[in-house]
Amino acid sequence: MYHTWMRFLTPGPAHHRLGLVCLGVGLQHGTLPTVGPRTLDHHVAVVISAGTGWYLSPDGRRTTVTAPALLWLTPGVPHHYAPDPDTGWDEGFVDFTGPATATYTELGYIEPARPVVPLTDATGPRGVVARIARAARRDNPLLEVETGAAVHELLVALRRARADLAPDGDQVLKALARDACLPMSVADHATRHGMTPAELRTAVRRGAGCSPKDYLLGIRLGRAKELLAATELPVAAVARRVGYDDPAYFSRLFTRRVGMAPVRFRAQQGRTVPGGWSNQVPDPDDPPMIERPHAP
Questions:
Q1: In whole angstroms, what is the distance from residue 220 CA to residue 223 CA?
Q2: Of 89, 208, 110, which is closest to residue 154 (Cα–Cα)?
Q3: What is the pLDDT of residues 41-77, one digit of tens each?
Q4: Where are the beta strands (DSSP E) in 31-179?
Q5: Most distant pair of Cα atoms in the chain: their distance
Q6: Alpha carbon of 224 to those of 212, 245, 256, 275, 280: distances in Å?
Q7: pLDDT digits over 144-200, tens only?
Q8: What span, in angstroms and rounded, lies between the C-alpha atoms of 3 and 10?
Q9: What residues pair up with 167 in beta bridges, in sequence order?
């Protein structure tokens, strides 16, 4: 026995230009029928939250699927899979497409060469699938935009839940973020962590989807923007604070990446606050209340 609920959507051309669109969503559990062999022209993320089964790759290799797990069904790649006939499984799936899939693949969020991905916990991704299902009601005037936005959220949740991203990798990224503004090269950072530059590149690519240089640069420029907006420090001092001894090089780099010179960014975004900005992130679920003056 099994239970199946699914809904399919047809976003318009304008929605496709948002980058990602949801084409369908489903929630199923039990001894579901075998899927395939078949080939699709779009992506599907199948989140297995309970049970076991199998996946057969195009070359005939059979992989055991044990929850929590993710099945990536990618365009043009034949797939064939099913839950164990004795135990069944619990799955949620989302069909999606759009030009942003190429970038998500480049960043490592979508892995066409790795159709079966173990997860540490399916709770987060399954929660996003459930929200997409709730948004997919036919009388929702925000249907296509709301479900498309949630596909972006789903890709982030799946990336965060991957079991292969060991805590060691997270520690390396945290340490790089902590030391990003020190005047150190990528080779210096690798040495500090007892790694070769190639090993560091692999760790950062797997953990953040980019090179160590780009990871460090993003943090440095973010900090530089904060200093330009919140202080009156000269540009040369800002450059030194974020790890650049040559202010001219910093200005060229900032201009190339941000699209405007540091002085122009300051002119647009400057918000000098006595005492500086707070380092404490506000709790969006418990915002501070502004006391209203009492009426005379």
A1: 5
A2: 110
A3: 999 999 999 999 999 998 889 999 999 999 999 999 9
A4: 35-38, 43-56, 62-66, 69-73, 79-83, 89-97, 116-118
A5: 81
A6: 18, 14, 14, 18, 18
A7: 999 999 999 999 999 989 887 654 557 888 889 999 999 888 999 999 889 999 999
A8: 24
A9: none
Which structure tokens are listed for 273?
């606050």
CA-based R_g, the chain, Å: 24
d(CA 204, CA 226): 24
pLDDT at 212: 92
Helices (H) and strands (E) in the chain, counts: 11, 9
Model pLDDT for residues 76-102, shown as the tens digit of each residue: 999 999 999 998 999 999 999 999 999
The answer to whether the beta carbons of residues 223 and 277 sit under 8 Å apart is no
3-state percent helix, strand, coil for the chain, nearest multiple of 5? 40, 20, 40
- What's at 3, amino acid-wise? H
Taken as a whole, the chain contains a residue count of 296
How many whole angstroms separate alpha carbon 91 and alpha carbon 186?
42
